[in-house]
Amino acid sequence: MAFSLLAGCTSAAEPTPAGEYSSSEFTAASKCQQCHAIIHYQWEGTMHANAYADPLYQREFHAAGKDTEGLVDEFCSRCHTPIGVLAGEIPPADGSQLSEIAHEGVQCDFCHTVSGSNGTGNAPFIASPGNMKWGPFNDSKSAYHASEYLELHTQSEFCGMCHQVSHPVNGLVIDDTYSTWKESYYGQNGVTCQDCHMSPGITEFKANPGRSASSSVKREHISLHGTVGGNAFVTGMLGAEKQRKLAIERLQKAATLSLDAPLTANKGNNVTIEVAITNSGAGHMLPTGVSEIRQLWLQVEVTDSKGQNIYSTAKVGSSPGMEPGMMYNTVLGDGAGNETLSFWLADRVIADNRIAPRETVIEEHTFTLPENTAYPVTVLATLKYMSAPQGLVDHLFGEGVHEVPVISMVQASGSIYDPDRPVEAQAETPGFTAPMAAVALIALTLLLTLLNPEKKQ
């Protein structure tokens, strides 16, 4: 390669170079499955398992290779098909020389034959394939392979080898997941990546009692190997429904909203509301990863009781005319200072509007209540997320081939009432009086009786 992967590394141990091993020296995930069935089940379908197969990565990878005349082929592949690089099977970038095991992406034997690292960022791992498997326990026993404890497997630095990326030529940081975690409350207080991404807690550590293998001892905690992030787009493309649902669940626990709106307001007057967005559940920036293509925004909609739209912020892909909204992501620029979604062409950060861990940002929105407003007025704020812009996906795959899902992460709502009438009277649910509620309860009881004839009331 024409550049070094080791910039800033100080350890005496050098990362394992490309072509150092044969792919036959690694064990296929299907072999690991024979004893580690549950862990294998969790791993399959994940973005780790599909690190190489990921269709979006493949399109961007080939575009990057074309734009840089192959300069980034090995650089990108070191994290997306580490065995392929270690075995010298890539380049060529088209994957024509890749062995079957190299297609498994970030798989079992690769991670558990990592015996050290030369720091964090740009994949400085030290690989030692063979009978010894490294992991988080100091008393593991296996009839199939030797086991040894490696503290690195319990630390965020293990994840930081690939989840911290600097441009291979100009050093621009293009993925700061690890470094923003390290500088955060979580990093300063010993909450690791594994605590959130490899436990049932999602946004905090929660023990997962169980066994790592069919014949191993039961432990208080076995790390989950789903290692889910927020990618509900590619997992959906690949039919990994389990992982898609987990990604949505993780997104919906990443942030909180609070809405401050006046209780009453007169027709014809300006109304100002505030919405507070807090990164309450992510130990890194929100969003993170290749954040120049991530889309995170607050959608605010104001309607009256007759459904009249009073105010709406811009929706992604909507027609012009709506109020512009803030996009929380990173904006990269190329050598000419133009915005670019191609990080391999970038040499600067034009803007960074992401939300830091435990940070709260406040959006203020002002609108006018029309003279024909029908009270009460509903204000609905929704934090929304897309893994990539629809326009980029259409460019890479063809228009209409894949629809990027819009994920509603969290909502907050409020009501604004007529100041000339008692708020309590306006807040009552229209058309559902106490007598009607009684009738509904009787009807429900009769229905349950019909469905469960043997149960006596």
Automatic annotation (TrEMBL):
Gene3D superfamilies the UniProt entry points to: Flavocytochrome C3, Chain A
Q: Where in the numbering of this chain does the Cytochrome c-552/4 domain appear? A: 31-113
Entry's Pfam families? Cytochrome_C554
- Keywords, ordered alphabetically: Membrane, Transmembrane, Transmembrane helix
Top-level taxon of origin: Archaea
Transmembrane intervals = 432-451
Listed name of the protein:
Cytochrome c family protein
- Please tell me the species this chain comes from: Methanolobus chelungpuianus
